[in-house]
Fold this sequence. Notes:
The chain is of the alpha/beta class. It is 35% helix and 18% strand.
Amino acid sequence: MDTGLYNTSTLKYEHISKATDNILTYIDERRRGISESLQTRWKKYNDMCMGGIEPNTIYVIAGISGSGKSSFVNSLESDLFDLNPGANFVILNFTFEMISSRQVGRKLSYKLNKTTSELYSGIRGKVLDEKDYFKAQEYAEEIKKQRIFYVDVPGSVQEVRNTIVHFQEHEAKGKWLVVILDHALLTKGRSGDKEREILADLQYMFMEIKKFGKNTIIELSQLNRDIESVDRITNNFMHYPMRKDIFGSEAIYQSADYLMVLHRPELLGIKDYGPYNLPTQNLIYLHLLKNREGGVGLIIFENNLKHNRMDEYDLKKDNDQSNLF
């Protein structure tokens, strides 16, 4: 992938006519159905985010520990193949936080509707029976056919970039490449480098990578501890996550085309969430804080993380909240 961005004397430039031709081609292909987003199973998410997952786009999903970030992306990864069978894409997943076999275990948990403890016979006196094991084998054979490649070993920003470039040239040539990084703060730095500097370098690298070929970046990140403070928890008007809550917020916010925060206020002991006193029991809130192509807002999910899935929840069915969504 010859980007031209590492020339020591000049940066690459093009006449506006090329950019104009490119956007007209994109508009025409979208209206004719030639170019389509990769759909997710979350209708509200698709409606808010240009139909699903777009090429040449960076998605950042942040949250506190236990908010469901990894499960969200793991189920998204599987759904992209199930719901877009004709799309020519491949996934490169930098799974720095969890070994790849456990990622597959989560997929099997999702498919079998069993907890990973049940799947791994981790509950005393409850061993996975033969019938369920055969089902797991059947799903495993389906999963093996998916074009997903894992990188288990954490690396530096330069090593991540080199891996993406090499992968694009050898495994993803002519295909839509979806890069997943779980998560940003586990990227290794040179001795003495500070976390925020490494994070900024990572964002600049992703901004470069997204512009060449047909690449999508899905990046997981963390929130800082301020959202867990007593002052925030006891003030309903301070419950919702804000831009400043994201670790390295300036670099993250600048680079992201879509910036989302998954939040489980229930983890913080909050029973009435935000200024409208929304319920929290077994619910996860996705706050869309930045959207280059549209408005911001929130989506509510039912918490079924024990089976590694999140299902859209319609609050209006159970509550008179029609003015909120």
